[in-house]
TrEMBL record:
Keyword Repressor belongs to the record: no
Residue ranges crossing the lipid bilayer per the database entry: none
GO cellular component terms attached to this protein's record: mitochondrion
Keyword terms: Disulfide bond, Mitochondrion
Region annotated Disordered, chain positions: 97-116
Top-rank taxon: Eukaryota
Protein's cellular compartments: Mitochondrion
Name of the protein: Cytochrome c oxidase assembly factor 6
Length: 116
């Protein structure tokens, strides 16, 4: 009677395997596929987005092949991370663009408005 079961010891053996997608060549292929997909999304930004990716990212149907390659080359957690990163970047760009139209001095709250 031990602490380890056969399943856990089998999992330990699996953890010794080399995951090729985290090696330099695998990461490079992932980054290249990612860049191709997001370049397509930017290039086709005038098209109506009809496809849904992770984290609510919408993209045009013309980028389906690039998306499939991106998903194939990268780990699912990486795809989700990159999608979140892209969406956050776009939100910041939209925010900065909308604030860019506001001209005039920036007003900061006065110290008296803070509770002490």
């Amino acid at each position: 009677m031990g602490w380890w079961t056969k399943k856990e010891s089998a999992d330990e053996q699996d953890s010794d395997d080399i995951h090729k997608d985290v090696l330099a060549a695998g990461r490079e292929a992932c980054y290249k596929a990612r860049d191709m997909f997001y370049a397509c999304v930017e290039k086709k930004s005038d098209k109506k987005p009809t496809e849904v990716a992770s984290v609510g990212l919408l993209y045009p149907a013309e980028c389906k092949r690039a998306r499939a390659d991106f998903v194939k080359q990268c780990r699912p957690t990486w795809v989700k991370h990159f999608d979140r990163q892209y969406c956050a970047k776009k939100r910041v760009e939209r925010l900065l663009e909308s604030q860019g139209s506001r001209k005039g001095p920036m007003s900061l709250p006065q110290p008296s408005t803070f509770k002490q």
